[in-house]
Amino acid sequence: MVYELKVNGETFEVDVDGDMPLLWVVRDHLDFTGSKFGCGLAQCGACTMQVDGLATRTCVLPVSSAVGREITTIEGLQSEAGKAVQAAWETAQVPQCGYCQSGQIMSATALLEQNSNPSDREIETAMSGNICRCGTYPRIKEGIKLAAQAINAMEVA
Amino acid sequence: MNSHRFDYSAKFVPSRRQFLKVSAGAGLALGLNLGVAGSSAQQGNSDSLLEYNAFVSISPDNIVRVMIRNTEMGQGPYTGLATCIAEELDADWNQIVCEHAPANTEKYGNAALGSQGTGGSSSVPGGYIEMREAGAAAKAMLVAAAAEQWNVPETEIEVNNGVLAHGNRTSSFGELAVAAARQSVPSRDSLQLKSAGEFKFIGNEELSRKDIGKNDGTAIFTQDIKLPGMLTAVVVHPPRFGGKVQSFDASDALAIDGVQHVFDIEDGIAVVANDYWTALKAKGTLHVEWDDSEAEHRSTENILQQYHEIVQTPGAVAESVGDADSLLAASDDVHELEFEFPFLSHAQMEPLNCVAMVDGDRAELTYGCQTQTRDQEVVAELLGTDVSKVSIKTVFAGGGFGRRANPFSDYVLETVRIAQRLQGTPIKLVWSREDDMEAGYWRPAYVHKLAATLNSDNNPEALQVRVAGQSIMEGTALAERAIVNGIDHSSMEGLVGMTYAIPNRQVELHTTKVGIPVQWFRSVGNTRTAFSKEVFIDHLAESAGEDPLNYRLKLFAGNAKETEVLNFIAEKSDWRNFTASAGKGRGLAIHSSFGSTVAQVVDVTVDGDNFTVDRVIAAVHVGTAVNPDIVKAQAEGSIVLGLSSALSDQVTLTDGLVDQNNFHTYQVLRMNRMPEIEVHIVPSEAMPTGIGEPATPVIAPAVANVIAAATGKRLTSLPLRLA
User: Complex ipTM, two decimals?
Assistant: First the structure.
């Protein structure tokens, strides 16, 4: 069946089964490979995209449920918070293997778009769905705090 | 991977092979000739098409390209080896670009492994001198070219940040690249490497990373590769290890639109489709009958019970100093603990995968390959072809922790078997998380028994160690080097040659036969041995009523490095002024592996049967810290991985069936259970030693030791459970 999807501001038509998860449509059919496959069960967060502004595990979201919604992948990250997170990731030298980091950045961005001054506890709650086996958690937390500072400084200015 | 067969301090002394110019288009390229001296006849001919590839090349567009022979899995060889080259070349950091070297032992062999591959925390220690020399040689040739052009003495030319200068005249590396390639290559003996005081790059904490593209989704992993005509393969593995396919019915699978092939491969069934989701759906419709007659049917509980029984009996003697047996037999005050370690899944974030295309006697592979030339050899053997016809392109690996360096190239051969059947078609094998967790290879389960007597000063007088578990080296290409007189030293590394002064020691090994595929895990045998050693020493300190840090210092008498690290962490953690309060305690552990020494002090809060790790202070002695920020990041990450196995990781079998198959049942550490981590590097100008692994095994015993101090319960099994 043909589905019309809005990904990173562009409209795409894909002819796939309706139960194919959004992750695989985006990766295998639209060739945006920044979002990763880690578990297939919404357990690890590597596949996180923003769907209507919410951090969403797309490895379990059927494409039929994604029609008509604004889908943003790491490739289309344009928001102020998203840019601040990416810059902070560079400053804090967050990634090691890097495989989970697109998902981490998408989750962190969604958090900061809703709460530009999260507490440690709020960061932990928002980020605990994203696993990093390399153990970059301390730097992810530092990165989110750096990004929050940058966003708040921009807003004051 | 294994490091125990090598004298860590000696193994990285560079060979006397000489640098050679190699053809890399216009410009200067330098490689190392692994062959004998005398090949210098080739020098001076800039057009020579030599067989040797380059570690460093400089092109007229002013790019310095560094070929990285180790696999970038996040542990930092891109940045680390580029740092060494940039240092002696006096390059501009921004002009340096890194890429993975192709598979070729002769050109890119790792002296520590005897082949091209990454392991033993050896990438930067192994390249530290060679890469610096490559940079120095390239710089000397640039200087010679500038001197010739400007008609000035070489000694008057200065090189800084990628620019050569003499008076008002300047030139970029790129502008001189072609002229430099015409200069003769300096002999390695003539190269003057910088002293530590002259370093600008080595030890610089501010350098950006060279493994780029990880913050914007552009970094390419195996999973991201798409080739024209490529099909995706998934495999159904037997539910029990050692099971075989008896029969299968693929009619439902083949009826699914987009499914191309279903066929039997060794130990499984391949489903090949246009994309992953289609292949996965088809996999779910297969009806398979398995022949489990030769499969492993035991539960891990039974296997471990058997190990506990075995360690009551003497094993093969791996180390014997003095007469521990007699002293223990004669004593009526023997201190004894038994330790238990579960199977572990590496659970790297990128499930195993590989891309291969076979066309007649040629094969092209692309993946996050960790053992390039071993994989190349086994693929060539499978195809009955020569290694020169098997090309391997390495891409970033989404974590590894040992798993990708499979000694039998399991997932690589699986891909090639499928690709061999579908000649000329690029095949991407994708394991699901369930495949990755259920199909092995795992860190083996073990039981250790440690027994000791104390002398009148409360120091250990005699120590007996018995270890039972599977060998990870048996049957591998490394067996010849790693197993001596039937004893796999990786089984007890860290317990033999112990650095605590104990006059009578006996270490015995029971190598068990179990039908579960096992292999190394980050820090290898140390994942277990550091735990049993450090918990046991702590237990002895407690029995002696002595402070655990002072007790260790006493037993390290004459051991300068461990003593230095302990004193360093005592100061950084303010150990001697800490006072425990209700439910809050502090403990420590120290262990040396891969040439490095790591100590960790841990703060834990205990609340009933629960405990929380609040803070970890780590001290790492790695010799010269080439990239201090990467050293810290590796220590942080190792602590997270080690803490994950201390708190929760374990794979179990019930009647031969795996109980955990994804992250809901294999509950790895997430951010909500993270302690604060503080890493301190012990200042040193010694040769660099490993950091990818040695901080991993220290955290678990440190946590167990705090729990013992806070609750009186000496936990000796991982993961740690108070109830």
Answer: 0.98
